[in-house]
Amino acid sequence: MREFFTKRFSLAITLVIFVFGVMMATVLVAAVITFALQHLGIISNHSQLPVFPLITFLGFCILLGTSLTAFLSKKALNPIRTVIDATRKVADGDFSVQVNIKGIGELEELSQSFNKMTQELSGIETLRSDFVNNFSHEFKTPIVSLRGFAKLLKEDNLTEAERQEYLDIIITESERLAALSTNVLVLSKYENLEIITDKAPFRLDEQIRKTIVLMEPRWSAKEMVINVELDEVIFSGNEDLTQQIWLNLLDNAIKFSDLGGMIQITLTKAEDEICFTIQDNGPGMDDRTKVHLFDKFYQGDPSHSKSGNGLGLALVKRIVELCDGEVYVESEKEKGSIFIVKLVA
Known about the structure:
Blueprint: H1 2-6, H2 11-39, H3 51-76, H4 78-91, H5 105-153, H6 160-191, E1 200-203, H7 204-214, H8 216-221, E2 225-230, E3 234-237, H9 239-255, E4 262-270, E5 273-280, H10 287-292, H11 312-322, E6 326-331, E7 337-344
Parallel strand pairs: 2-4
Antiparallel strand pairs: 1-3, 4-5, 5-7, 6-7
């Protein structure tokens, strides 16, 4: 019984109760007026009512019922008006607006859905703004460097060592700009891709081994140790697309590992799930960094001291999603990071 009274009324039941209440109020008022007329002796129980006064009385009852309905309906429609006003604010670009409607089931669910929508829109707007700002920054920095060092090369008083240094910087910045442009185009392509084509079975463990060999100059230059434990796994997918996952994750692990560090790579298969992990002993990351790690152009190091443009992990996430898998990170400050990729076998 208690649950019955505490349960939210549906909109249909609320409207039925509302109309019934208006009708009862109208009948009650009509009965009171009739009783009053009888008490004053204007009409009697045995007398026959004249037609005109009866029509007038009925018209009054109708007018009274209509007035009560119009007045009370304004109260009943207030929650909907609240949502309409909030929607207008969202249309004007205010995504901070929230509505709080209680008591009626459908309207309460509407307010919750509306609040969730504004939160998502706010997050998308923030992400869009950050994307534009970071994109502009990432492109502007190498272009400014190229222009600056190109002007310096026009000076006649440069030594040969300075000239070579400036040329090396120009080459490095040009490669960075080219890589950024390529990554932006690749990410844009995969974001608009819904279905992976050209699927074929291949040895996933062999692909990962080839990726490690391909990246050997990078990890050898930092005198790193790569420990590998790979089960033999056959995976059906697009081989070129899948390799981008391992290239970016290994590149990220090398980038954030110290000189002489170690990277542990494992690949296992259990029933219908394939699990790939890559663990480094780098600086790790805090909770805020983990939340935004797979956002485009996001870099946990605000100084941008590490080479990169913040697109590699966003690319990894999108490719894994296209493979119907998931990727996430486990990390703590000063304790390294573990990236985990799970795919459907």
